[in-house]
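hey so i finally got around to running the thing on that chain from the lab meeting. sorry it took forever, my laptop kept dying and i had to restart like 3 times. anyway pasting the input first so we r on the same page abt which one it is
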Amino acid sequence: MMRPLLTGIACSAVVMTGGLVGVFTHQNPAPAITKSLSQTAQPAHSHAQLLAQTPTTASSLTAIEKSAFDQINKYRASKRLPALTWNAAIAEQSRIHSQNMANGKVPFSHDGFQPRVAAIAKTVAYRGAAENVAYNQGFSDPATKAVQGWIKSTGHRTNIEGNYNVSGIGVAKNAKGEYYFTQVFIRSR
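ok and heres what got predicted. didnt touch it at all, straight out
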């Protein structure tokens, strides 16, 4: 029996044929840039509304987020890097972006990265930020598939191994069964 397999990795604006995984990094932007960009990419639905549209429960998505986060920290430990600390504000911004990609409000991309970081900066002073995105479908363990894809990709691995200390992951699933992942990495002050 064949099941449909779909994986995603986006690399900036370039889509690679082998899958789709996204990578984006930047240093703390100038305040004027942050302010002008903070007006865009607002979510149309809350996390609860998106979950109500699909058979996936909030607890199962939370478990997937935790699994991916734990796998990232396990990988960092294998490289003798300090563990990342979970941050709820970062996770919420990551979740909103994953929801927006899952429901087609934004393409699979880093669209709205600056406004996400600006929203995070309201609660976390930062010196640098980076983002990984992924999507997949048809796998029994979507978290492991996303993390493995990130680790195999130089740009994503650079973010995972980067000089960041706080992070959050947001996962959303759409009616087609596609899981969207966003992980934002922050170097706090």
